[in-house]
C-alpha cells in the first residue's frame, strides 16, 4: 500500500478544512495509506514571496522532519507544492530534503501521474468552469499554456471528465491569472482586484454554477469578489468534486 504524507496548506487548514478532509477521503478511496503529521506548519512560501526566504529555515527543517519517511507527499495546492519542490533545503539533512523535493505532488498530478486514475465513483451534476492556477500550470506543468504551439492537455480536466453529470464549460481565456499571486494581492491590491473581476466575469458569462480549481488561495480571492457583488456562483476545490456523490439538483 502506498504510504502518503498529507501536507495541508495554512489557508486550507484555517479557512477551508473541508478541502483537507475531501483530499484525505479521496486518497483513501483510491487505496492509499494516508498519514497527517500533526506538527506540520507553513511551508515558508509567504516569507519567500516577500523576499525573506532566509526566515523560512525553521519551516524547512520542520517540513523535513515531518515528511521524510513517506513514499509520497501530496498537497491540495499547486503553489505550496511548487514552493517545496523548488525551495526546500535543510542544513541538517539536505539528502532528505532532496528526496522530499522529488516525491511531493499536487493532488491532481498525483492522481494522474502516480496512481494513474482512469475512473472515479463521483457525481457532480452542475455546470463548472475550471480556473487553472499559474503555479500549477506554469510551474508544475499541470496543463498546457495557450501561448505555446503544442498539443493541449490538462490534468485537472482529465480528472473532471471522469465525474458523472459534470458539465465543464469552455472559457474565453482559460489560463488567465486571477490576480491573487500570494503577497501580490496585498502589495498591488487594485491590480489584483481588477484581474480577479475579469477572471470571475469570464466564468459568469458562461453561466457556471461553480468555479473549480486546484488552489484554494486563488479560489478564495475570487470568492471574495463573488460575495461582494452578490453573485450566486460558488467556488469549489477539485478534491471536493472528485470526492462527491451528489444527486441531481432540484428544479
Automatic annotation (TrEMBL):
<protein>
    <submittedName>
        <fullName>(Fe-S)-binding protein</fullName>
    </submittedName>
</protein>
<feature type="domain" description="Cysteine-rich">
    <location>
        <begin position="128"/>
        <end position="222"/>
    </location>
</feature>
<dbReference type="GO" id="GO:0005829">
    <property type="term" value="C:cytosol"/>
</dbReference>
<dbReference type="InterPro" id="IPR004017">
    <property type="entry name" value="Cys_rich_dom"/>
</dbReference>
<dbReference type="Pfam" id="PF02754">
    <property type="entry name" value="CCG"/>
</dbReference>
<dbReference type="GO" id="GO:0016491">
    <property type="term" value="F:oxidoreductase activity"/>
</dbReference>
<feature type="domain" description="Cysteine-rich">
    <location>
        <begin position="4"/>
        <end position="85"/>
    </location>
</feature>
Amino acid at each position: 500500500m502506498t504510504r502518503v504524507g498529507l501536507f495541508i496548506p495554512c489557508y486550507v487548514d484555517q479557512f477551508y478544512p473541508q478541502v483537507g478532509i475531501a483530499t484525505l477521503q479521496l486518497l483513501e478511496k483510491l487505496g492509499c495509506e494516508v498519514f497527517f503529521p500533526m506538527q506540520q506548519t507553513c511551508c515558508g512560501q509567504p516569507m519567500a514571496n516577500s523576499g525573506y526566504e532566509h526566515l523560512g529555515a525553521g519551516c524547512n527543517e520542520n517540513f523535513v522532519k515531518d515528511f521524510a519517511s513517506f513514499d509520497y507527499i501530496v498537497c491540495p495546492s499547486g503553489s505550496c507544492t511548487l514552493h517545496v519542490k523548488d525551495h526546500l533545503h535543510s542544513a541538517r539533512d539536505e539528502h532528505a530534503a532532496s528526496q522530499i523535493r522529488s516525491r511531493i505532488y499536487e493532488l491532481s498530478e498525483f492522481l494522474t501521474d502516480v496512481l494513474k486514475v482512469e475512473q472515479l465513483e463521483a457525481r457532480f451534476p452542475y455546470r463548472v468552469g475550471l480556473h487553472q492556477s499559474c503555479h500549477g500550470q506554469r510551474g508544475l506543468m499541470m496543463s498546457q499554456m495557450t501561448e505555446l504551439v503544442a498539443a493541449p492537455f490538462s490534468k485537472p480536466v482529465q480528472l473532471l471528465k471522469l465525474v458523472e453529470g459534470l458539465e465543464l464549460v469552455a472559457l474565453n481565456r482559460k489560463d488567465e491569472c486571477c490576480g491573487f499571486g500570494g503577497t501580490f494581492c496585498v502589495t498591488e491590491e487594485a491590480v489584483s482586484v481588477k484581474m480577479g473581476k475579469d477572471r470571475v466575469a469570464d466564468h459568469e458569462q458562461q453561466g457556471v454554477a461553480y468555479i473549480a480549481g486546484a488552489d484554494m488561495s486563488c479560489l478564495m480571492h475570487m470568492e471574495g469578489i463573488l460575495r461582494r457583488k452578490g453573485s450566486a456562483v460558488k467556488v469549489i476545490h477539485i478534491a471536493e468534486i472528485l470526492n462527491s456523490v451528489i444527486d441531481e439538483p432540484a428544479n
